[in-house]
Design brief:
By secondary structure, the protein is α+β, with helices and mostly antiparallel strands. The protein has 4 helices and 5 strands, in the order βββαββααα. 15% of the residues are buried.
Length: 203
């Protein structure tokens, strides 16, 4: 999903301008850059379209106007008085960007939860089913949000991948615990048989 748009537009004075809009998802804001027709050369337009739009840095002209607004359901993301050639793209972006911000918030929440569980696992010396249940809950919660289309599949994939890694850590601890139990069981079994034989010999 694109978080940057490049469109031609015009001001209230009917001056043609190049409009660049980007989502600042961490801040839940939208930033708009307005370039006059004089500085928006074909070369600059192509740089914006092929480089800046894909998060590659370019040099902006010294003369431009910038606007910043919060991303809300009620407010327009375009500065007042600015019109663009394809307003439907703006409306679609506004809807999609709400989804992007929500996805980021949910991802950060899962990331924090998984970091807490990771810290707990790192302190364990033996397998703990409680931590396994916590991981199972986080995985189910993540998948339920995907089903409700509240979070990107690309974003949640990283969360689920981290969950699987932590599950593997728990499995290693469980295998270690099983091995120790087996060794101890054999030890106690042999000791019991030895004492049993001693008692039989005495009788």
């Amino acid at each position: 999903m694109k978080t940057k748009l490049i469109l031609w537009g015009k001001t209230e004075q009917d001056q043609k301008v190049l409009v660049a809009i980007e989502l600042l998802e961490n801040e839940n804001k939208v930033k708009t850059y307005v370039f006059s027709e004089e500085v928006a050369t074909e070369e600059f337009y192509n740089l914006m379209l092929n480089e800046w739009r894909f998060d590659r840095d370019i040099d902006f002209p010294a003369v431009m106007q910038t606007y910043e607004t919060s991303l809300t359901a009620s407010e327009d993301i375009l500065p007042e008085g600015l019109l663009v050639e394809k307003p439907d793209l703006i409306n679609r972006a506004k809807t999609e960007w709400h989804f992007v911000v929500l996805s980021k918030k949910l991802y950060d929440l899962y990331k924090d939860e998984l970091e807490d569980i990771k810290d707990q696992i790192s302190e364990l010396n033996e397998f703990s089913s409680i931590n396994g249940m916590n991981l199972k809950y986080s995985g189910k919660s993540s998948r339920s949000h995907v089903k409700r289309k509240e979070i990107y599949l690309e974003i949640i994939f990283e969360s689920l991948k981290r969950t699987d890694e932590l599950f593997n850590n728990l499995k290693e601890l469980r295998n270690k615990s099983d091995d120790e139990l087996k060794v101890n069981s054999e030890k106690y079994y042999n000791e019991f048989n030895s004492k049993h034989d001693e008692m039989n010999n005495k009788n």
